[in-house]
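Database export, one record per block. Field names are fixed; values are copied verbatim from the stored entry.
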Amino acid sequence: MTTKTESKGYLFVATLSKSYYDAMVAAIEGLKDEVPEAQVAVFTHEKWLTDQDRELFDHVFAPVPCHVRTKLWALDKTPFDVTCYMDVDIHVVDPGVHDIFDVFPDDLDIMMSENRPYNSKVVFFQDKHQNNGVERELEHHRKEHIELYKQGKAHKFKWHCGFFIYRKNDVTDKIWSEWLRIYRLHNESEERCGIYP
């Protein structure tokens, strides 16, 4: 019995600003310099695409929503069985980046690294049992917000979401859908606006 070989590739999303698109092109050029066989899927706006850039991209998805979290919308649309998502501000300097596909265990659906102050914005949330059943994002520059964290009434967002690997399946599709729903609840909904001044 033969088993199907999983397709593997990288996913990038650039919306909102042409500067994100330009950063994405530079990131993909760097990736392909180090890993020439890398398969790349991009989600972006049609008006920014050039013929020269299209030669770098193996899969192009346009149009896409113009939103600060378009990546959450795009993750379940990957053309690959196993996908390495990369934020566009990444700079690949070593072919070892491709090893992520070799170290990703067969029994996992997602693998992420933990947030560290030098690689990401550190985000804190007030725990829902402290705030009428809803978590609230805190501002790390406000002493009273960090005091909530020190008192155990808030928690730090644990996972770094700018570089991770996942399998496309029902589990991850549901996670991405829920992530987008919760993000929108916290940041866009009337319910959220009614809770927080």
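Remark 1: Residues 191-197 have pLDDT under 50 and may be disordered.
Remark 2: The helical segments are 18-34, 51-54, 70-74, 100-103, 143-150, 170-187, 190-195.
End of record.
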